[in-house]
Amino acid sequence: MSDNFTLAHRGRLAAHPFAELIVEISQIGLSGSLRTSSNQRKAITYFRNGQIVYVVSNIKSLKLFSFLLRRKKLEPAEIARISEFTNDFALATRLIAEERLSQKEIDEILIEQMQEILVEVLTWADGEWEFDPKVRARGELEYSLSEATLLLDYARCSSLEHVNARFRSVEEVFAKSEITPDDSILLPNESFVLSMFETKPLKISDLRMRSAMTDQLLLQALYVLWLGGFLVRSGWNSAFPVAKLGAIQKTRLVRTKGAVPIALNLGISGTLESETAPPAKVDAPAMTEQTTLSLDEYLKRVEKAENHYEVLGLEIAADEKSIKESYFSLAKQFHPDKYRRESAELSRRIQSAFTTIAHAYESLKTKQAREAYAVKLKREQEAQEMLKRTEQGKAAPPKARQAEEALENFQQGLLLLNEGDEEAAIIHLARAVHFSPENALFQAHYGKALSTDARQKHKAEAALQTAVRLDPKNFKIRAMLVDFFIANNMLKRAEGELNRFLELVPASNEARSMLTGLRSRASNK
After folding, report:
1. Measured between alpha carbons, how far is 448 from 137 in angstroms, rounded to an integer?
2. Strand pairing partners for 139?
């Protein structure tokens, strides 16, 4: 058995999706090639120290000549006289030599091409994959691709069923990444979950206790943060076993036999199997007319839209297929990475619009989601009609909206509390309690925020006592009340709370340890 065969590692995309393979390879820092295939579609993604440096595919619509035709840089009639047009680098070399395109134009088109290949492979629900650490791109071949944003979009657009299936147990552990990306791109729920990772790793079970989110929202946020590079993950069903990983990391680079160097102005040469085969004779593709929006039309439509369907340019009766096609078409055409050189104001509008269409798709992509959104639209319409009838300033929000308001204000309040802005936190947490007074966690954090103001000590105690009454067996909430008593030098009351908790939960080691420490502290005085 050859060494190369031993080191190559393979599996199925159904068990380890392409997005997760990218993240695992990136966080481990591997170099090599990741081959993926689904039916007749194939792609190779090359990594160097965990970074994607080049991507190639056999799909005709994702070849370089297809991009040049769509951009009208090449006429269909010219394809027939260019025998090597199916070989991307050979085609690029010829166009540069003939001064049809500049190196800068070629580089921009190649980056766009590679990003679209990544988007395509991300959609493959099943197929085969193989990672080979000995097949690598040449040292000169390197492009800077922004795959992090693509992975964020993939995670946000994944169905809840898919996300749930990607977690093995509540004992999985997450920790904050050492190199954290810019968190300004995160949605409120994602920012809230990320804020809980301060100094130590947390299990999913820990996060459940610390947040008031549903399991589905929590897992979705964790999946986004992990794929986006904000968190690292352990205790899960990883693609690379420890034994295999150790052998891969010791691999020395061996040049693939039969590699054909293809030079460009930048001195690029590549070990690209799909590029070295003799070009097949392919008829020039027929050009089809595509109805596309201009950037200005797209931005105006998204900014003026009154509902998610209008954001995607669809009728309210649109089906799931139309919704998916519209979203991915817009995402490809107006992805923010394509407009990085625009002014700061225009870039902001493009990023905001992209977030809006992603949220619209997330809210409409499943039958259940569309049904829930239909209810929301109906309630909004009823509220507007009530407002017109009564001619009052504002209609009272429905109960469902109250719960949503409560959660949003709690998350914002917790973020402010963690940032040390207690005054602003009190305002948001008070709103959370107002909309959801029976939520023990909301009451407890409201009390904790109030306790930072000496003038509101009695009000803080009342909120903490209410929280304990609502959830008497929750040690985290009870500990917040105990901490309040200790801070105000009421040690007997703190001890009484711990004793009462131990009567309810005798096996609590945390409570027993805290009680021992408290008694030791009292005896030393």
Report:
1. 55
2. none
Query: How far, CA to CA in Å, does 105 sit from each of 101, 108, 144?
Result: 6, 5, 15
* pTM exceeds 0.90, yes or no: no
pLDDT recorded at residue 256 = 38
The burial of 10, by beta-carbon neighbours within 10 Å (0-12 exposed, 13-18 middle, 19 or more buried), is given as exposed
338 neighbors 351 (Cβ within 8 angstroms) = no
Say if residue 492's pLDDT is above 80.
yes
Asked whether the beta carbons of 477 and 444 are under 8 A apart, the reply is yes
Distance of CA 501 to the CA centre of its chain: 40
Res 281 pLDDT > 50: no
User: pLDDT digits over 29-59, tens only?
Assistant: 888 899 999 988 999 999 988 889 889 888 8
Q: Which residues contact 178 (CB under 8 A, 6 or more apart)?
A: none
Residues 437 and 470: beta-carbon distance below 8 Å: no
Residue pair 451/470 in contact (Cβ under 8 Å)? The answer is: no
Q: What are residue 52's DSSP bridge partners?
A: 47
* Cα distances (angstroms) measured from residue 201 to each of 196, 508, 510: 10, 22, 18
Rounded mean pLDDT, 413-417: 78
Write down how long the chain is. 525
Q: What is the distance, to the nearest Å, from the Cα of residue 509 to the centroid of all Cα atoms in its chain?
A: 37
* Tokens read off for 18: 């392409």
| Cβ atoms 41, 57 nearer than 8 A | yes
Closest CA to 329 of 307, 342, 317, 313: 313
Q: From residue 238, how far is each of 159, 234, 243, 288 by CA, in Å?
A: 21, 8, 12, 43
Burial class (CB in 10 A: 0-12, 13-18, 19+), 96: middle
Give the Cα separation of 391 and 377 in Å (integer).
21
The pLDDT assigned to 138 comes to: 66
Sheet architecture: strand order including 173-176 = 202-203, 173-176, 231-234
**Token pair for residue 210?**
């610390």
Distance set, CA 429 to CA 10, 435, 463, 471 (Å) = 50, 10, 11, 18
Q: For residue 159, give the amino acid letter.
A: S
DSSP reduced 3-state for 35: strand
Q: What is the pLDDT of residue 398?
A: 57
Q: Pick the closest to residue 299 from 328, 330, 327, 343 (CA basis).
A: 330
In the chain, what percentage of residues exceed pLDDT 90? Answer: 17
Report whether 406 contacts 431 (CB < 8 A): yes
Contact indicator for 93, 269 with CB cutoff of 8 Å = no
